[in-house]
Structures are given as C-alpha cells and as structure tokens.
Amino acid sequence: MATLGVIKAEAQSVGLHLLAVGAAVPGEAVTNDDMAEIVDTSDKWITSRTGIKTRYFCRGERNVDLAYRAALDALVHAGIRAEQVGVLIVTTFTPDQMSPSVACALRARLNLPEDTVVFDLNAACAGFLYGLQTARQLLLASARPYALIVGSETISRVLDFTDRSTCVLFGDGAGAAVAELSTASPFYWLGGSREDAAGFLYCSGLWDKASSGAPSVVHMQGQEVFRFAVDIIPHCIDELLQKANLKLNDIDYVVCHQANMRIISHVVKRLHARPEQFFVNLQRYGNTSSASIPLALNDMRRQQKLKSGSRIICIGFGAGFTWAACLLTW
Ligand code: UT7
C-alpha cells in the first residue's frame, strides 16, 4: 500500500491547466477627473502615485451579475458544456449578501449540475490564486473534468467616498477561468498570511457594526501595505523559481495583483528584471482585489500574449496580510 507521502507526491505532480479566461466590468469608465469632482484629488496625483487612469463602478449591477458575465465569457472561450463543470468557486470580499454565497446564485444562473461543489472564498486580493489551488485539489476528487474560478468584486459598495486616500484606488470587475487537471502543465503554488495586528488594511463588517455602528468600508494605511507588497512579491518569485528550478528569464510574464504601478516598478528594479515581462493593466481598472489577476490574464489573451506553453507567474497580496503566488504553464 502507498504511504501518505507517496500519495501526496503523486497528487502534487498533477498540474492545473487554464483552458480559457473571461472578464466583465460594469457601466462606463470613471476617470480621475470624475473622481476629482467627488473628493479633493487630481489626475496628476492619482497618475503619478498609482498609475491609475480609470476604474469602473457598479450602478445597478450586483456582484453575481458581473460574475455571471465573466463566467459565461470564459465558458464560451473554453468551448465546454455546463454539465462538465464539477467545481465552482467565487473569490470575493464583497459578496451581495453574507449568505447564501454568490457561487450558489451563479451555479443556478449558469445551469451547472446541482451536485457541483460551490462556495465563496475570501482571501482578499490573493483570493483568485487561493481559488486556483483549491479548485485543483477539489478536481482531484471530482467526477467531472472542469472547474470554474471567478474573482468578482463590487468594491464601490464598501468605499468611503469622503476618503480620498482610498476611494480613488479601487474599482469593480470580475474575471474568470476554466481549469482542468493536467500532467503536462506543471503548477507550483505557495501562499500564507502575516498578521496585520495594527489594522493597516481591512474592511469592517458585522463586529464593527454591532459594537460601534460603523459602516462597512475599506480602511488602508497605504505606505504599510506598500512595504508589505514590495517585500512579499520578490520573495514569492524567488521561491517559485526555486521550486520549479527555473530562472526569471525562463518566465514569459509576471502578473502581480494590480494595485499600484510604483509597487511593480519597485519590484522590477529590485530583481533587475525586464519591465515588459511584468504585465500591467491597472491604468484601466484600478485595484479590483481578487478580480485583478483574471482581468489581467483576460487582457493578455485579448492582446494575444498568451501562447501555448507560456510560463506565467501570478502573485496576489492584500488584507490579512494574505498572499499567494503560482507558476503556471498556459
Ligand atoms: O489591494 C491591496 C493592496 N494595496 C496596495 O498595494 C496599496 C499600496 N500603497 C499605495 O499604493 C500607496 O501608499 C498609495 C497610493 C495608497 C498612497 O501613496 P503614498 O505615496 O504612500 O501617499 P501618502 O499616503 O503618503 O500621502 C501623501 C500625501 C498626503 O498629503 P500630506 O499629508 O503629505 O499633505 C495625503 O493626504 O498625499 C495626500 N493624498 C492625496 N492627495 C490627492 C492621499 N490621497 C490623495 C488623493 N489625492 N487621492
């Protein structure tokens, strides 16, 4: 009989292949000049400090509406049928309601089989990458071949539009991927969390509401989060390259969580990397938390940057402080 170690090693050798990605954003783009009509800010400040030019805010749409459009886009591109999906994970910290999950409503709308494993996963801006690894493990036990992972956020619902230090940074959107197990597509993953006892980045919820009546909004001390980000990204890249026995030059693209251009530039400099290796689309969407990485992958697909065999490192980081990273082969 195989030992537990052997069973685990065999399971770990099964990679994850992304067949297709899709995306959705709500309404019309909100420019930096539009934001300057709401708070005391300017296009100059936002562009120079963050690189962001526009973002999208939901008007009437719910989280599940964005998730549905992104999921359908990915399913159509993958060319698979609803009854072939065994796992559906929605990653979000901004669900429409506490319970039931966005994933439950999405399963029904997509007509996925009733015995599909469905749930929401909250790992803040690292959520989508936690979702990929969780889907990989659940697929090992699924009778059906495909998983659908959807990062979907309606962050505008939890923004304080009197706080210029946060409200200009974030946006709404959803990105989705259809994934299958594959022995031909190695998948290296790591993740974790580092205590943020001081509360440098959080979105208050039930406890704050119950104890002080404070509304649920995002609070952030940007410089502390910046410090965390520029520490964890190179660490993740080094560790993944070591695991895969590769060098940074062997990687086609690095996709960081799209929070701030200065974070990405800082990392490029520190690693002596080629700037064009780091995909950037935060100028269009702002920080969309767990939707940012699939939104980036979808823009890369549209720009025909994703070729069969491309090696891509993705890194997510955010509240918690959580992080996750993966090296995947397209
Ligand atoms: O998804 C989670 C991941 N999040 C992140 O990665 C965020 C990481 N942090 C950052 O991206 C940056 O720290 C920010 C973009 C959030 C802020 O940039 P900063 O260079 O760290 O600015 P700051 O917070 O030190 O503020 C500098 C000045 C302050 O004014 P004083 O005190 O120097 O007079 C702020 O009040 O900029 C002011 N300020 C603004 N001015 C115009 C803050 N927000 C704005 C604004 N418009 N929107």
UniProtKB/TrEMBL annotation:
SUPFAM superfamilies to which the protein is assigned, alphabetical:
Thiolase-like (SSF53901)
**Matching Gene3D superfamilies:** 3.40.47.10
UniProt keywords (A-Z) are: Acyltransferase, Cytoplasm, Fatty acid biosynthesis, Fatty acid metabolism, Lipid biosynthesis, Lipid metabolism, Multifunctional enzyme, Transferase
Instruction: Supply the EC number(s).
Output: 2.3.1.180
**Reaction(s) this enzyme catalyzes, per UniProt:** malonyl-[ACP] + acetyl-CoA + H(+) = 3-oxobutanoyl-[ACP] + CO2 + CoA
Pathway stated in the Swiss-Prot or TrEMBL entry: Lipid metabolism; fatty acid biosynthesis
Residues of the Beta-ketoacyl-[acyl-carrier-protein] synthase III C-terminal domain: 241-330
The molecular function terms of the Gene Ontology recorded here are: 3-oxoacyl-[acyl-carrier-protein] synthase activity; beta-ketoacyl-acyl-carrier-protein synthase III activity
The Gene Ontology biological process terms listed for this entry are: fatty acid biosynthetic process; secondary metabolite biosynthetic process
Q: Which InterPro entries match?
A: ACP_syn_III_C, ACP_syn_III_N, FabH, Thiolase-like
Q: Where is this region: ACP-binding?
A: 258-262
Q: Which residues form the active site?
A: 125, 257, 287
Annotated Pfam families: ACP_syn_III, ACP_syn_III_C
The domain of life is Bacteria
Listed GO cellular component terms?
cytoplasm
Annotated family: Belongs to the thiolase-like superfamily. FabH family.
Q: Which HAMAP family match?
A: FabH
PANTHER family the UniProt entry points to: 3-OXOACYL-[ACYL-CARRIER-PROTEIN] SYNTHASE 3, BETA-KETOACYL-[ACYL-CARRIER-PROTEIN] SYNTHASE III
Notes on the domains: The last Arg residue of the ACP-binding site is essential for the weak association between ACP/AcpP and FabH.
| Role description | Catalyzes the condensation reaction of fatty acid synthesis by the addition to an acyl acceptor of two carbons from malonyl-ACP. Catalyzes the first condensation reaction which initiates fatty acid synthesis and may therefore play a role in governing the total rate of fatty acid production. Possesses both acetoacetyl-ACP synthase and acetyl transacylase activities. Its substrate specificity determines the biosynthesis of branched-chain and/or straight-chain of fatty acids.
Oligomer and partners: Homodimer.
* Protein name as annotated: Beta-ketoacyl-[acyl-carrier-protein] synthase III
* Species assigned in the record: Candidatus Avidehalobacter gallistercoris
Starting at the broadest rank, the lineage of the source organism is: Bacteria, Bacillati, Bacillota, Clostridia, Eubacteriales
Encoding gene per record? fabH
